Amino acid sequence: MAISNVALIGGTGTIGAPILEALKKSSFNTSVLNRQSSKSTYKDVNVITVPDDLNTPALASIFKDNSIDALIIAIKPSNVESQKKLINAALEAGVQRVMPADFGSCDSADAKTNELMPLMGRKKEIRDYLISLEGKGKLTWTSLITAHFFDWGLGGGLLRFDVRNRKAYIIDGGDIKFSASNLDFIAHAVIKVLQRPEETANKLLYIHGFYITQNELVAVLEKVTGDKFERISQNSEEEIAKEAPKVLAGDMEAYEELVAVWGIVAGDWSKRETFANNLLGLKEDNLEEAVRNVVQGLSA
């Protein structure tokens, strides 16, 4: 199996944009799929216009005409039907690898996670669908579970840290080890997957760029900013009990809060059987450098 021609859909999104930049710097021939009515524009990359409804026969023809070997899906994970259309077209066209929209903070393979946050179950639904297609045609798949989007979340106040106001919401004492990844680290991991098609075929892989505690992170934040952070103690069980019913009622703000907490208390990828940093040749990022970049970005 050899991958040369890669197509990405969702190239302007939170994770799609850095993946696109990494692909453009790689040796892969990269194309972006852009829906006909989309206002998105792209520089220095081949753009392929696709039907708004992602019609499977039309997509399959497009994939064949462009000799697409791998498809990366970076649209919202909740768009299950769109993902299935893309996957069906890939299967029909003889695409070798699909990477579904499984990137994110929490483990969509974990039953408790799916119970608390049913939206995560949609990621599992897509992965189960891909598993059901194994052995049919050339299609294989790889899912990357990336842990918290570290730089994006820290800067946006989504990781129980309010950097602008120097507040840290500390869960269960702050010494729980959890995984996290910068967006560029995730994009780099995608490239590594495509460079190792045989070793990564039909696998759910866990990666992280950081393996830290909240207390370690507070210490680095205080060093970088020169300011003392207010520490607000929180109990994970109480926070989950408060937010989970709101999530089930469709409250997306509560969903973000629950993801932030659960991504700490149940976000240690290092002990997962398919933890793949070594397989992919990934080295953890420098925490102080990452924090400094976030702080400088907030000050700009």
From TrEMBL:
Supply the Pfam families for this chain: NmrA
Q: Which InterPro entries match?
A: NAD(P)-bd_dom_sf, NmrA-like, NmrA/Isoflavone_reductase-like, PCBER-like
Keywords associated with the record = NADP, Oxidoreductase
> What would you give as a GO molecular function for this chain, any one?
oxidoreductase activity
Which residue intervals define the domain NmrA-like in the entry?
5-259
The family database entries (PANTHER family) matched by this protein are listed as:
NMRA-LIKE DOMAIN-CONTAINING PROTEIN-RELATED, NMRA-LIKE FAMILY PROTEIN
Q: What is this protein called?
A: NAD(P)-binding protein
